[in-house]
């Protein structure tokens, strides 16, 4: 009798917690370009985050959703924000975009001017914050892995990374400084100063090591605070 | 008595017409780039349309609003559609954009890919049509006035003009084929095959003659049907 | 006796002619880019010219030499003129360059300005003429096969073709107007206005039909008085 | 008699010195782009080198010749090497080119590919060394003065500077590492991380301070054993 009561008592307090964990995992959207599109593949970084959460027994607490499309620039994200992000009612959104905004200047003449990059980026944040969504902004990683600022787009990437840091500060959103993490890693781990083959297979897209490294940084940002 | 009746009778039928003309002129927004920004200046094409309407005694029937910003491309229009167009509750919107989408490829590496040009263009139309706004789409005019397809961007401009014609047809919106009009005019009126100085002062922005010519074409499109 | 004399007499006059034909065929260098590099391959245009000459029994009269290197622009030809052309002491040189000068503007930001294109082109001609070499200049063919001037580089290619025509005239050298030939052909033979697949496999490099067509035009120019 | 002997004695020793100084100053050509073209102006860096030499009483020992043309890239130098440099029979040639090779990629799509930059650069050196001319190669200075590698072209400029250092080493010619000097200076003297206004007026062309600084570096290189 007493035992039964105890069980009921436990159930009474525990059920809501169980319910919360089981019914409402934190919904996280990764919003980005081809790296994020590949992120949900068997070796992609989003898959790696899932695996890391499972290893910690926390996979039920999170629902990870990839929303990456190859070739996307910041204004492409803006165009599909409603359908691909807001409609999913996420709790957290990672914005990870900028490589194509810089790269396409040289490769096809269709990159994004710095001032417009900022304008569209802040328009994204504004709409996400209006839905009380927690926003985490990521600096663009790399186009080329040389560690002495001699990759052709390094100047522009450094500048766009600075713009994101300013955006994070100005809009009071969380920063995940991927470019800094990548640069620090490559100073330590690219002694031959190679263009690719460490974290990327082709100067941009990630090797398995790159996906693991990115997943670690994303997960750190996600569980922070 | 009979006269009084007549007066009443006239008033009965005429009042709604008078009211319509006096209270609710047709609100027309010109949505575009630097050419449209200059369009509201003392010699700009929108000012010319006003003057043409006044000369015909129809100026009270139309309210013309310029919504051009220098350097704008199609995605810039998309970003400011709500604030600069929809908020004004227009009856008619001219979309006249594309020159920078092509030009900036060569001048700053920040033009717009053809497929994305179409995508954003149709997103604009969709939002305008959802408000029952009459849409008139304009093909991009010129970057250089040579009349033998030897201006550097002619190939791309011809292609983007074709895309707009297809967009008009596919979305059942009115077409104002400015590029064709300009090309036809320059074949007749540029015997020395000059790069500028006929309809443009600098290969892109309009001379007084250019503003008049553009105004005529816009007005023709506006009063059509 | 009289006959023998006659035979000797014929031999006396004929031998030098025979010798000339046998010992000294006309040496022709094709100087260009990847299209010319492929020109000496089994299905390349230079190989086709050889075959056409053989079919006419004139193959002994000509020695055809390919001097094409992929990615070359006019200044690359200038750099290797001595080694790859003058050192071979040719009688005739076809200059067929310009596609990369235009194309690389968009694809890698490393095209050639029009004024410098002319400057290097005329420097080539000057050095060739100083060696009494017959020069035949070719207009650039196509980047895309659409026949309504809507390929992205059509404006620039039309302009560079005009520059070559002016160079030919100003320097009194023979013109082989390949671009015009290709354009005329495509108006007749590309009813669906396709981008590729008629004379080119990839908008630039030649199909078998393209190599045959180019060979015909080159041969016409070569045998032209 | 004694006096006459003295005079002869003086003449005997002095004449060669006088002759050397008066008849054959060291002829130095500065071969480059618009910065060098401006270098011979009233406040240009070559003028500054002259003034520095005069202050040291050494102006008679050097003849300084500017051979800069605005907009020049490495292949433009190659085209005019004979006329503008070799014809002047110099003892020393500074090659200072590369800014336009990088910059024009973004500004007009007509920059120079890295591999061709090296090829033309080494062709220049080869021709100069064949005339026993002492060659001093300079790394490109700056396009933008931010000191944290966030100017758009910094990556490319760093890479082209590395290529020049390798060229110097591989060809055993003297290096004047202007880019390193400028970067070191800007780390010390640009605390606000401004884009221009320290050594340059417009991110590229030199202020008076810039001309003085450049002149000092050039002079150091020139007098170096």
How would you describe the overall organization of this protein?
Chains A, B, C, D: Residues 30-211 form the SGNH hydrolase-type esterase domain. Chains A, B, C, D: It comes from Dyadobacter arcticus. Chains A, B, C, D: InterPro entries: Ester_Hydrolysis_Enzymes, Lipase_GDSL_AS, SGNH_hydro, SGNH_hydro_sf. Four copies of one chain form a homotetramer. With 225 residues, the first copy, chain A, is of the alpha/beta class. Chain A has a single domain (26-223), classed as SGNH hydrolase (Rossmann fold, 3-Layer(aba) Sandwich), CATH 3.40.50. Helix content of chain A is 52%, strand content 12%. Chain A is built from ten helices and five strands; from the N terminus they run αβααβααβααβαβαα. In chain A, helix 8 links the parallel strand 4 and strand 5 (174-176). In chain A, helix 3 (45-55) packs across helix 10 (208-223) and helix 7 packs parallel to helix 8. The radius of gyration of chain A is 20 Å and the shape is globular. Residues 10-21 of chain A have low confidence and may be disordered. At the A-B interface, helix 4, helix 6 and helix 7 of A face helix 4, helix 6 and helix 7 of B.
């Amino acid at each position: 009798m007493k035992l039964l009561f105890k069980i009921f008592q436990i159930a009474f307090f525990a059920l809501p917690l169980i319910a919360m964990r089981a019914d409402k995992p934190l919904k996280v959207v990764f919003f980005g370009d081809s790296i994020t599109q590949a992120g949900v593949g068997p070796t992609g970084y989003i898959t790696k985050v899932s695996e890391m959460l499972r290893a910690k027994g926390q996979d039920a607490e999170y629902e990870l959703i990839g929303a990456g499309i190859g070739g996307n620039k910041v204004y492409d994200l803006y165009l599909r924000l409603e359908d691909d992000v807001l409609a999913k009612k996420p709790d957290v959104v990672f914005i990870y975009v900028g490589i194509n905004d810089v790269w396409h200047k040289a490769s096809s003449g269709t990159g994004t001017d710095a001032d417009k990059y900022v304008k569209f980026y802040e328009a994204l944040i504004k709409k996400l914050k209006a839905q009380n969504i927690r926003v985490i902004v990521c600096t663009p990683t790399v186009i080329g892995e040389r560690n002495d600022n001699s990759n052709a787009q390094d100047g522009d990437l450094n500048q766009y990374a600075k713009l994101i840091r300013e955006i994070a500060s100005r809009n009071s959103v969380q920063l995940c400084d991927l470019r800094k993490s990548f640069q620090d890693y490559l100073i330590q781990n690219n002694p031959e100063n190679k263009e690719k083959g460490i974290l990327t297979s082709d100067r941009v897209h990630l090797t398995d090591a790159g996906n693991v490294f990115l997943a670690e940084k994303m997960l750190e940002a996600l569980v922070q605070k």
